[in-house]
Amino acid sequence: MHKGEIIPPISFCRWCLGLILFGLVCYPSVAQAKADNQQKGIILLNDTAAALESSNPALSKEFTQLADEQEKEWEAQNAGKAKAPAALSVADRAQRIKLLKQAAGAVAPLYPMMARDLGRMADDTALAGITVGMSENDFWALYPKDHLRNFRHIGPDDWLTYNEPVDDPFDALITFHFNGDKLAAWKFNDRPEVVKEYLGEFCFYQPPSLTYYALQDVLERMPYKDFLSATRRERPMLFTEFYNEGTARFASSSEFIVNSEYPPCCQEGFTIVKLGMSLGLAKTKGPIEGVVAHEIAHRVLDTIRKGNANCDGERRANRLIIKWGFGKEFKEASRLFGQKKGDPAGCQEVPHLKKGKSVIKK
């Protein structure tokens, strides 16, 4: 077509039709892309069932059933006979996610790519119905407030963190960021944000306290599974001041306040970690981290509830924090806060050198 040429009406219609057909072939519609994703999902479920058939027949059967259900839905949608599938309930969604993650773990050694795709399917299941811009009220229907793990509120911004799936406190986390009552973004396993939320609610120390920064660093660095275990809302750790000087050494008060807007807490009790004001002797956070990590290790080991509140329990906690990677901080804490000559007898650690590394021996 030359510049300025007038296109006859019939030719113009044929040209438009050709352009539309070209677009349909080269650029599938959103509906077509969704259908393709459904097909790929069904294939993945069937492949997973086949991969698990010998090693885990029961799990394989569950995936075969799930694939059959989704295939029937897909066929009905193609025939125009299906209604929009109902959203999964909180419990059903949690069960689906656990099933996908269990299978991902089972097939990972032999089929890493399949495990990756199952993990993505689990994430997609978690986010089904979640859209940027949705209101908090609509969001609560999918992620109820009672299931909140941690939260933070600053001005018009809210950060809400959930276990993922919601009934499994030892797997993963997902944090949603709201601005002005509208969902702005989300992120899986955003530990720095979760630590801020946790300390904002359960710690009486706040920035710029060196003790606060030591707590923050320990919680961010300790192994993820231990972090999840120690910071469960059903049994949280409360970090509070312990006065041993001045008039406060005789009496002091702190309050842990909740209201009807807060999610349930402390159904399994709680752990109070009393951090002495003498930690202020430290000029850097390293020695304080050694002390904090030791106390959190007691919680992970369940020292008190298992009746191990003795020297052996102290040594176990020390060995654990060295395993976590806090060996340097442990040494700094021992030098600054450890037993001095003339102090009453206490638990002693005997360092032994082995292959150039410092280890702790019972």
Q: pLDDT below 50 for ≥5 consecutive residues: which ranges?
A: 1-27, 352-362
What value does the average pLDDT take?
85
Q: What form results from the Cα inertia axes?
A: elongated
Please give the number of β-strands: 8
The ordered string of helix (H) and strand (E) elements is HHHHHHEEEEHHHEEHHHEE
Strand content: 5-15%
Taking the alpha carbons of the first and last residues, their distance comes to 90 Å
**Radius of gyration computed on alpha carbons:** 28 Å
Number of domains: 3
Number of helices: 12
Major sheet, described briefly?
4 strands, antiparallel
Strand order of the largest sheet: 1-2-3-4
Q: Quickly give the structural class.
A: alpha+beta
Q: What is the helix content?
A: 40-55%
Task: Explain briefly what this protein structure is.
The protein starts with 8 loop residues before the first helix and ends with a strand. The chain is 49% helix and 14% strand.
Q: Can you describe what's shown?
A:
This protein is an alpha+beta fold and 362 residues long. The protein has helices at residues 9-26, 30-52, 57-78, 90-107, 112-126, 136-142, 191-202, 210-221, 224-230, 285-301, 311-324, 327-337; strands at residues 148-154, 157-164, 172-179, 182-188, 237-242, 271-276, 350-354, 357-361. It has three domains: 22-126; 136-189, no CATH class; 202-361, no CATH class. The strands form three sheets. A four-stranded antiparallel beta sheet has the order 1-2-3-4. A two-stranded parallel ribbon has the order 5-6. It starts with 8 loop residues before the first helix and ends with a strand. Residues 1-27 and 352-362 have low confidence and may be disordered.
